[in-house]
Amino acid sequence: MDENSSQQNKFSTRTKWCIVGGFAVVCALLYVVLYQIIYEIGFSDGARYTPPEVIRQSEDRALAVASNFVKDVFESPQSLAELLKNRHERMSWINDETVKENTSWGLTRELMNRGAVIEAMPIAAELISQGYQLGKFAEWAPRAELVAKNLCHHHHFKESIRFWADALQGYQSVGNIDGMLLCLRYLVYVEQNNNKLSNAIQYLEQAIGLCDKLGEKGRLSKAHLLAARGRIAYNLGKREDSQAYFRKAIELASPEGTKENSDFSLAYICMGEAMLELGKKQEAKEYFLKGIPTASKDKFLVNDYLSALRGLARISVDFGKYEEALAYLHQAEGAAHSVLARDHVFWAGLYDQRGWLGLLRNTEAEACLDFTKALETPTATPIIKAQSTEGLGRAYLLLGDGAKACGYLAESVRMREAHFPGDAFSLGRVYFSLGQAEDLSGRVPEALQAYTKAVNYLQSCKSNDAQVHLLKQALLCKAYTQCDAADWSGAVESFHQVLPMLVGDQKLENYKQLARCYDKLGMTQKADECWKEGGAPRAKRSSSRSRQKAR
User: CB 3.0-4.6 Å disulfide test: which of 20, 221, 242, 409 passes with 233?
Assistant: First the structure.
């Protein structure tokens, strides 16, 4: 055995196992280190030297995603709406949340630009809510305003309310008073279009309070809002309140030294309405004509513009220019078609006014059509319904249809007694017409009852020539109907009431009728006195048919 062999035999068994184990560990470490080095080199090389087929497949997938996205954006509003509805999935490739948010808003705005405003509503509402939750009021309030304006532009007034409220909340959070005023003015406009006058009043009061905070800067805006408040009061029948609002508006928006803008135009219209209420018709006309050119171009003044046109029609009627009045009403109808919803209360008022104008123009058939349109408007107010029902009764009376006239006039009486019991003149006027309709139908007792009620109402209101004239006519008709009913004592009383109101031949003729009544009562001396007052010799009482001549 040589020396080496003897040396190896000197290692113990334990030593041998330690040597083998150590070698194994070293080999393992070398394997791991070398594998990592080789892997990194291979990955880098692989990234630099990827086979063309792999690159092409990867590019195709990316292009497919982008192509489908762009295709859905531009193909149709429906596909864009569907994309936005599933935007969290479809935009998952956009990692930056701000970019994703702005992209979603940009596409929502594009959807609205294509006319799909209703489809964009829920997406816009969700985006605005998310933006507000993050405190981005200054950024999202104008966007809420834009959605609301788009809805109004497409006549979706009811749907726009929530977005105006969102915009108002956003502007309020950042203290933007001008933005708040804009939203409140639109909310007033929208609620008026929806015939929610109580809501409009609430927003008006809030806006007026904001104007006070602006000082001189808010003067003209406050004048505008006060005028709008006055118009609502006027439409609700609160005439004294409306005049007070108009006076305040005029004081704030006096035309002298004021730059010509919408508020300047509104001042003219307000002054025109105030003058019209005071009976100064020529001055009112001049103010209306100065105000309507600018008002016709301002969407906030649409109600004022239309009111001015209807005011001009009223003035033209008072001046006897019926065709001119009709032209103003047709102009108002044309202007409203592109702005107001078909169920807006304006339409009922317009048709009612045009119906009465039709009676003055002796076009009873056209008047019937307009009155019927007014009554068919679902938002017609009680006063419009009462007026149009009365108008239909008057039209059928003029057409000689007593039965239909009685039906409509009786219904108008019922409406007025239920809703406007304090309007004595109007009740007296309708009862007078009802008496004529009953008279035309040959129902003497019913006619006498209607004339009596007309006289009772009209005796409490004799403040102007029109009221006095109607009372005179009602007393005459009552007296003649009492003659037809052989109520000679009642007729004598009625003639004595009306004779002081008569002049000329009409007075002489009715003294003769009174004389006949005394003759029927056997009161010869009284009859002789009346025959003398009538300037004629004693004669037999004429037939009841002669009463029409005496009127």
Answer: 242
